[in-house]
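Ticket #4471: structure output looks truncated?

Reporter: J.K.
Steps to reproduce: submitted the chain below (165 residues) through the standard prediction queue, then opened the result file.
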Amino acid sequence: MFPLQIVLVTALAFSLLVLAGAVFNARVSRHDWTTHNHMRTITDHKVNGLNDAINIYATDSTPTEGGACATYRIEPVTTAEPAGPINPVTLIFQNKPMLSSADVIGISNEALIAVVIDRMRGFQGGKFACYENAEALVRLEESLMWLQKRTRDRMARGVEGTYQK
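Returned output as attached by the reporter:
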């Protein structure tokens, strides 16, 4: 696999992991969260050498009001030359109602997906264009569309930015 394809697979796997997080969290009971007060390791992205060298943790001790984690830590475990050690990244997602811009405390699922969509479009416009990338791009765009539809529906019902369904 070419280095850029490996990076692509990593970015795609992480984006899909974020989307799958709600499904995984639905299978974890509240009891599991409260009795195991430590970071939860995520391994869905492990598929090749690059991904094997990246650890992902859900670092919340309990899920948010909505049932999902809000903080993730991504730790590359390589010290390969020439780049040297890579600093860990912490992703903090919005985890409270947002009634004004002062309430923004984290990123959205949509923002993270938009970044990966941009990368995929770049790959599809370059020498790594392929059927699999095209399919992944379509699914990411579809995921973004459904999340945006949910937001628009909540806005129309007057419950966006609240804990109401």
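Triage note (M.O.): checked the attachment and the full token line is present. Residues 1-37 have pLDDT under 50 and may be disordered.
Status: closed, working as intended.
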